[in-house]
Specification:
174 residues, 0% strand, Rna Polymerase Sigma Factor, Chain: A, Arc Repressor Mutant, subunit A
């Protein structure tokens, strides 16, 4: 059946893999998502004794965040090289909105989110899309609970102001 450690890890994996994958999927291309999820759980296995039993999900999302940050840095370097190479040839025609949500229906929300700072977008995402409480957000961001509450409050206020400025009253409870 496996050791007790393997069984505990397996339970943790089954309980949280969907949330880790969802968090990762919103921040990186879907092609890279599974690699980052795998790296997150590899790190969790290697540091299993450090995983706080009452904050597993938040700890895992914090680890995923670090892997994502490393990936984003690498991706920026890769894209700079690709961009330099692409500038040598004429741009290809690209089909707009292929495989994406209709921007007309979600335009005001995405426009407002796009105006938030990276830190504001991240804290809103953790609260709204991943349903984390400020105490869990604090673990993911490696900040105090008070700082997490303040960041979330300010980000929500800023997003509400931006939505009000667009005239979209339909998006609430972020």
């Amino acid at each position: 059946m496996g050791s007790e450690r393997e069984q505990r890890f397996s339970r943790m994996f089954r309980a949280h893999v969907a949330q880790v994958r969802g968090y990762t999927w919103t921040l990186v291309d879907s092609a890279d998502c599974d690699d980052i999820v795998a790296a997150t759980f590899r790190t969790a296995w290697q540091r299993f004794e450090q995983v706080p039993p009452l904050a597993e999900k938040a700890w895992l999302l914090g680890v995923a965040r670090q892997h994502i940050r490393n990936h984003v840095r690498s991706e920026r370097r890769r894209q700079a090289l690709v961009g330099a190479l692409e500038s040598l040839r004429p741009p290809a025609d690209v089909e707009m909105h292929h495989g994406r949500i209709d921007p007309i229906t979600t335009g005001p929300l995405w426009q407002a989110i796009g105006q938030l700072s990276e830190a504001e977008r991240e804290v809103i995402q953790l609260a709204a899309w991943h349903e984390l409480q400020p105490s869990e957000i604090a673990v993911v961001l490696d900040i105090s609970q008070a700082a997490a509450r303040v960041r979330l409050h300010r980000a929500r206020q800023h997003l509400e102001t931006l939505l009000r400025d667009t005239g979209d009253e339909g998006v609430r409870d972020v």
